[in-house]
Amino acid sequence: MSNTGMNMRGKIIFYEEKNFQGRSYECMNDCSDMTSYLSRCQSCRVESGCFMVYDRNNYMGNQYFMRRGEYSDYMSMMGMRDCIKSCRMIPMHRGQYRMRIYERENFGGQMHEMMEDCDNIMDRYRMNDCQSCNVMDGHWLMYDQANYRGRMMYMRPGEYRSFRDMGMSGMKFMSMRRITDSC
């Protein structure tokens, strides 16, 4: 049985200016459009939990993983080119992690089942691309470069038949990491 539903609440505070200045917005769940609360967001503080933040509304665009800590100027720290426009709280998962990755869209080509982090799918599985996946248990981050580097995508439990159809055209996912309770 998955314990995803029994999660602890996260808390993130967004600030309009760098160094936690200006108006602020406190968030304890998903927010698809932060522009209704702040005109811009230049810094944030994660007090508890983990969050994915997005540079476009409705959980679109580039994604960034944020764990507990202070981000006084996250744009220069993380290489973001735009403000945070939406955020999603990542529920803590206490149980096993399982994900099947596929070489091609619609679960085609080579398939490998993962239960642990993988820093390089080419080295471990001799797979040079991952175009679809099925997340059975846990929450994962997928990276477009080996060794957990580059652009990332947050994966919740579910079937992902085509990363291209999800707006990730041209991205090759080369490493995957579990989001554990050590956030």
From TrEMBL:
Q: Name one GO biological process term.
A: visual perception
Coiled coil spans: none
Q: Which PANTHER family match?
A: BETA/GAMMA CRYSTALLIN, CRYSTALLIN, GAMMA M1-RELATED
Listed Pfam families: Crystall
Residues covered by the Beta/gamma crystallin 'Greek key' domain: 10-48, 49-91, 138-180
Q: What is this protein called?
A: Beta/gamma crystallin 'Greek key' domain-containing protein
* SUPFAM superfamilies the record matches: gamma-Crystallin-like
Query: Organism source for this protein?
Result: Eleginops maclovinus
Q: What function does this protein fulfil?
A: Crystallins are the dominant structural components of the vertebrate eye lens.
Keyword Repeat carried by entry: yes
What taxonomic classification does the UniProt entry list for its organism?
A: Eukaryota, Metazoa, Chordata, Craniata, Vertebrata
Molecular function terms in GO for this entry?
Answer: structural constituent of eye lens
**UniProt keywords, alphabetically:** Eye lens protein, Repeat
Superkingdom in the source lineage: Eukaryota
Family statement = Belongs to the beta/gamma-crystallin family.
